Here is the input.
Amino acid sequence: MNTTAQRLQDLPRPAARFCLGIGRFAGRELGCDFPALRCLVACSGGADSTALLLVAKFLCQSRGGSVVAAHLDHSLRQESPADASFVANLCAVLDVALISERQDIAALAQASGLGLEEAGRNARYGFLERARRETGADIVLVAHQLNDLAEDQLMRLMRGSGWPALGGMAGHDAQRSLLRPLLLSPRAALEDFLKILKQTWRVDGSNFDRATTRNRVRHELLPNLLSHNPCYLDGVARLWRQARMDGAHWDQALSRLLPQVRLEKGRRLIPASALSASPAPLRLRLYKAVLETAGPGQSLCDALFRLDELWVQRASGKSVRFPGDKEARISRAGVVLQVIDRKKECG
Here is the structure.
């Protein structure tokens, strides 16, 4: 990287415009003006996170915010120490503080019974939250970009996700203090930005292993879709925006209904008055929201449809079971949800 270009105003014009566009997207669409905040930037050394670290550095320097980088070595590849060294050198050039940690993800996966991908994700976000607390950062920036969003939408479709979850990952997760400011930036645009600045990046060979579903989506399914429709990523961004608007609408509607749910002796009653006043799409979301408050266990779409069918029929006494030993039963008073004690049930 050209070390003389350490400020936003020193950048070539296309690179500066790219940075400013990221800042505008985060502020206007994600509701987070991160350049004015204390930011913790997750950096693996790949193109996406390297670009994110540079963008955050330039924008925060111009707006009064600050940047600390965080790197987790998963100990899964021979090259991982070189990745850590690359990130450390980059941070030294940028005069950015770095928090780094090494974990044995393979051992963690074996001990927990999780797959490598899930164990790595849990370890990564746990590390980032610890680092955020340690540094006093306001927000954690992660480098998911538009191609990642396209993959996420496709994988959600394959898993049978409903609407608006099909729109893909959140751009701003306030509960976890997490921000994805690159979410609508294509991977090619990030690489172009780095090339303008003559900044290299690391390549993770495991991203090309087609034994994993995500990599097959990345290297087979998504390129196939792009060959049929070169503007497919534009559609991904539109779908994400539509899902955000619809999600906000349903959240607002649910916020008016959830206070009407009554909790008595471990049972949750959705009153008949609330259900009768709600259209089917809202009822389905209400069942799901209340079931989620009863504990772990995903509420499957077919079971939710079956429950609503029983409610419409006013099939008093009929019930539907959900994962997590949850039961929803139709009554005259409404829909009663509870967790079933299997030991008592089996006598």
